[in-house]
């Protein structure tokens, strides 16, 4: 049987892949014959008996990553196959989707997930003429997020799952998927361009591939990466601790008002009044939140449910980070206490000696993590610990199978620093995902497009800046700033998206958002068209439809006049405001 299917592959190859039909290729025997033979991928043994293959015609799928597919349909070969790690006896199911031959453009694509989930959808590449895949990662990742799998029980960490979620599962998916794709279409050694695209944890996953599987990819698009994982997750609890320690819980309407008033005050600092703070650095340097004290606010009563912090891709009705709440009518004026909470949150976590432990959300970002809960019995605002952070602390740090911290009794800023330190050390080579030596990726000729919403209220924009700075200093220690910048931008470019929120546009700031990152990276990888700006389109407000060419970091936008576009300027003071040393930790530096 294997013999005859190899013959089929060879026959198809001579006929060229494009001439074969989907039905010709999409057979169990063709897939079995196309599997990498045992021994060719060190440590990864494919299990031919597990192969299924079935053609799917005219499916309205394959959108992925926020793309709308309005009316577009795809025909593809739906393949499942499992592999095992040599000698281990585990069985890890994979899914692949191979576009019909006439749509295939010699590409392989992996989409990132979100929250604590890997993507379970293998069709994300169809829109790009790419074969693509998804992995169950050894912990049934098609059906569970990793948060529900990190502990076998109290005190007992699922390390296989931790490494799989952190980076190994996706790397193996790609490692197997590339030769499988070549053989599936009978391409022999024709280059298959390989891409990863993701945002939030998907952005972290993308960075994990850049760091750990650098020679497997040609292009990676990573948005708002949830990396520096211990810092990032514990940060979600920091605003609640600010409130607990001051025993003051500001009404959410007051926090919303502070954000709105900050946006109004700082919007013009970038040279154009358009509802967008394109320069949060100028806002940080020039605006004093105290000026909002005394402003009045009003919010009508409401019942609301939120999906949490953009961390809940797979949960549409409850799950980690999602909350439903009801709030009464709120009517008052901003107090010094309200401003003190907002200021402390924007200043970021420091230890009891005033040493910086982590950066924070940019001023003007929504303060959702600081929203307290309304107790309708006592008619008072109370402690609310976002489970995005609380559940990380209970499960990853305390190793207790609890969905959230029960409270913050006896917790101090030093406690948060200690939790971060434990997480940073324990998961240093798995979840932390901040290795700055990208030599393998760079020398293989791959390209990295990294972006982050400047007003992201979940994953601070400065956390991406800090990583870019780490990579530059590790990769080019001996070059001058200008030389390092030029060398780096040949293969790694970073863009802040003015006003944007977490992996999307911001209802509070009608700014631009990039829509065609994959077009940009494909052009860079396959045609050598190196970007110097990033296309982004405004989708609401007075400037709806405007296409902006965003500035590449570290240059910053400055509008000249109210209509004539912006320049990308160098501003040392601005860059300094984005630069941190986390000296609360003994281990240095923190990348
Ligand atoms: C693949 O290799 C075979 C054997 O070397 C050759 O006959 C065939 O033309 C090649 N096919 C393609 C698509 O390059
Ligand atoms: C590859 O090895 C696995 C065991 O590691 C075995 O189950 C499988 O049948 C082998 N595949 C082939 C094609 O021999
Ligand atoms: C898929 O759509 C095409 C174009 O509309 C049509 O010709 C074809 O018959 C459809 N195939 C199936 C299996 O429905
Ligand atoms: C793909 O194949 C798997 C395994 O046979 C099956 O469970 C799944 O429903 C198929 N997907 C589609 C879209 O047909
Ligand atoms: C803040 O601004 C948004 C719209 O930009 C508005 O919907 C909301 O009601 C405002 N909140 C407060 C408290 O002013
Ligand atoms: C902001 O203004 C207040 C009140 O005028 C002042 O006490 C505080 O020092 C100012 N903050 C900064 C950072 O200048
Ligand atoms: C909120 O829900 C409660 C209970 O369902 C209902 O009584 C109340 O009228 C709702 N309030 C608003 C503002 O919708
Ligand atoms: C808010 O409260 C003030 C004083 O109690 C009152 O004058 C005002 O009408 C209230 N505003 C709203 C919108 O209810
Ligand atoms: C208070 O909130 C609880 C929980 O949401 C709800 O069950 C209860 O009906 C509310 N009571 C009042 C008086 O609104
Ligand atoms: C795990 O620890 C938590 C917190 O101490 C406890 O509530 C729970 O019962 C424990 N679970 C088991 C299965 O022992
Ligand atoms: C807080 O600390 C005090 C004094 O060390 C101790 O008695 C108490 O049990 C602690 N409370 C909690 C909830 O850990
Ligand atoms: C950028 O936007 C311009 C104007 O809409 C468009 O012509 C161009 O094709 C876009 N570039 C990319 C890479 O999408």
Automatic annotation (TrEMBL):
Region annotation (Disordered) ranges: 312-331
Source lineage: Eukaryota, Fungi, Dikarya, Ascomycota, Pezizomycotina
Protein name: Carboxylic ester hydrolase
Protease listed as a keyword: no
Residue intervals passing through the bilayer: none
One MF term in the entry's GO annotations: metal ion binding
Keyword DNA repair listed: no
Signal peptide boundaries: 1-19
EC number: 3.1.1.-
Pfam families xrefs: Tannase
Family membership: Belongs to the tannase family.
Organism of origin: Lentithecium fluviatile CBS 122367
Keywords: Calcium, Disulfide bond, Hydrolase, Metal-binding, Serine esterase, Signal
Stored InterPro entries: AB_hydrolase_fold, Tannase/feruloyl_esterase
């Amino acid at each position: 049987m294997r013999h005859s299917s190899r013959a089929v592959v060879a026959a198809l190859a001579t006929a060229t892949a494009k001439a074969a039909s989907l039905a010709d290729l999409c057979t169990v025997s063709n897939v079995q014959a196309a599997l990498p033979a045992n021994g060719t991928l060190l440590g990864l043994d494919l299990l031919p008996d597990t192969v299924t293959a079935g053609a799917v015609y005219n499916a309205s799928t394959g959108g992925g990553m926020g793309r709308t597919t309005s009316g577009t349909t795809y025909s593809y070969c739906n393949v499942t196959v499992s592999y095992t790690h040599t000698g281990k006896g585990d069985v890890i199911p994979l899914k692949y989707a191979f576009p019909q031959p006439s749509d295939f453009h010699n590409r392989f694509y992996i989409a990132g997930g979100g929250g604590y989930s890997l993507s379970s959808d293998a069709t994300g590449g169809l829109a790009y003429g790419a074969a693509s895949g998804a992995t169950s990662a050894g912990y049934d990742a098609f059906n569970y997020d990793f948060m529900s799998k990190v502990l076998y029980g109290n005190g007992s960490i699922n390390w296989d799952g931790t490494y799989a979620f952190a980076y190994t599962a996706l790397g193996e998916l790609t490692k197997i998927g590339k030769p499988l794709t070549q053989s599936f279409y009978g391409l022999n050694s024709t280059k298959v361009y390989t891409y990863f695209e993701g945002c939030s944890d998907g952005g972290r996953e993308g960075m994990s591939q850049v760091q750990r599987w650098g020679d497997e990819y040609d292009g990676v698009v990573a948005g708002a990466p949830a990396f520096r994982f211990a810092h990032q997750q514990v940060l979600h609890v920091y605003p609640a601790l600010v409130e607990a320690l001051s025993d003051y819980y500001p009404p959410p309407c007051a926090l919303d008002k502070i954000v709105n008033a900050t946006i109004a005050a700082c919007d013009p600092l970038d040279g154009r009044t358009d509802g967008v703070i394109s320069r949060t650095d100028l806002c940080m340097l020039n605006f004093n939140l105290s000026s909002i004290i005394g402003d009045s606010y009003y919010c009508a009563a409401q019942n609301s449910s939120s999906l949490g912090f953009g961390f809940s891709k797979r949960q549409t009705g409850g799950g980690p980070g999602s909350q439903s709440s009801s709030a009464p009518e709120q009517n008052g004026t901003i107090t010094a206490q309200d401003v003190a909470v907002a200021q402390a949150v924007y200043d970021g976590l420091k230890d009891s000696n005033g040493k910086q432990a982590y950066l924070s959300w940019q001023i003007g970002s929504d303060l959702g993590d600081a929203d307290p809960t309304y107790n309708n019995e006592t008619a008072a605002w109370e402690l609310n610990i976002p489970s995005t952070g609380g559940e990380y602390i209970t499960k990853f740090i305390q190793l207790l199978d609890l969905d959230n911290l029960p409270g913050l009794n006896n917790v101090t800023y030093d406690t948060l620093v200690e939790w971060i330190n434990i997480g940073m050390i324990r998961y240093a080579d798995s979840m932390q995902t901040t290795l700055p030596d990208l030599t393998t990726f760079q020398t293989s000729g791959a390209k990295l497009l990294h972006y982050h919403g400047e007003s992201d209220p979940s994953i601070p924009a400065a956390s991406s800046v800090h990583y870019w700075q780490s990579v530059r200093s590790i990769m080019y220690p001996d070059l001058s700033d200008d030389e390092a910048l030029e060398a780096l931008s040949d293969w790694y470019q970073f863009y802040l998206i003015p006003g944007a929120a977490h992996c999307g546009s911001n209802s509070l700031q009608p700014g631009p958002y990039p829509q065609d990152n994959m077009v940009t990276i494909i052009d860079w990888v396959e045609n050598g068209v190196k970007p110097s700006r990033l296309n982004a389109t405004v989708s609401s407000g007075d400037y709806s439809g405007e296409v902006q060419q965003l500035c590449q970091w570290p240059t910053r936008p400055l509008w000249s006049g109210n209509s004539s576009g912006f320049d990308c300027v160098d501003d040392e003071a601005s860059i300094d405001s984005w630069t941190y040393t986390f000296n609360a930790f003994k281990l240095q530096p923190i990348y």
